[in-house]
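anyone seen this seq b4? input:
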Amino acid sequence: MEKNKIALILWFSFLFTAPVSAQMMTEQEADALFESLSNWGRWGENDQKGTVNFITSETRVSAARLVQTGTSVSMAHEVLDEPAADNFSPYDHRMTSIGSSPGPWSGDFIGVSYHGYAHSHLDALCHRFQFGTMYNGYSEDEVTEAGCGQLAITAFKEGIFGRGIVMDFPRLRGVDWLENGTPITSDWLEEWEVANNIKIGSGDIVLIRTGRWMRRATLGPWNLAADSAGLHASSVSWFKDREVALIGSDSALDVKPSLVEGYDSPVHALVLVALGMPIFDNLDLEAVSEVAQRQGRAEFLFTTAPLRVNGGTGSPLNPIATF
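predicted toks r here
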């Protein structure tokens, strides 16, 4: 009995303290993934949507059938308008008119530079370059002072409607949040599928919960650009194999430090540039994970729509999960 207890302790110790060397990837290995994972030309040389092409009329109808109780949950974090270690560009929200003066209308101004680690948003495919190119071989020169000439956020102006799946890794591990620097690998993804009796497939919208917002509420803000749990670059091939349409997380997707030599955000680079897969950053997955747990299912109807900004590199938004 005592030996079994010791073995169990050692096993859990391995899960959470696996040597960094076992996860390290060289710059050359990461570079090779761009070619092996490339979706360039898959939907034609002029394609603007990338993996969102996996969402079809059939997958939308199937996703609509997931609604059983009508429970609706927001997956956007409350707007942050105060500077913090993870918020270098707070929302600028100010009133332009109020009820008492001049009246009879009230109005306000909202402005934000939303990319980063604070605000819930969707990355367009023109948000990232690698080797001087964007997804599908479009040159980085397509992005000018006027905006993105190709792969702008307006490619998704009809909105996103599909099967959403929240992969709750803190719950899988029995903790409130993953410790900073924890890399999520393909083994973790497959383990989650088995534990939740669900198979991720073509057209799905996959959301990764690390517990970032619960950690922030408990311990305060910190610099996620330097230290955060997230996906390891080696896991990107798993998402390509499953034909995932979009991916997102409660952070900015990448584990930090990245564990890849020469790359600060290799998952962002591989997903946006090689796969052509848009990314939801800084979603708040606390409420949706709780509802998923209560209802005993991690799948739901996912709906959202970006702002229709010509040439935009992305958009703030408020994704909704409906069970």
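Confidence is low (pLDDT under 50) at residues 1-22. The longest helix spans residues 2-17. kinda curious what u guys think
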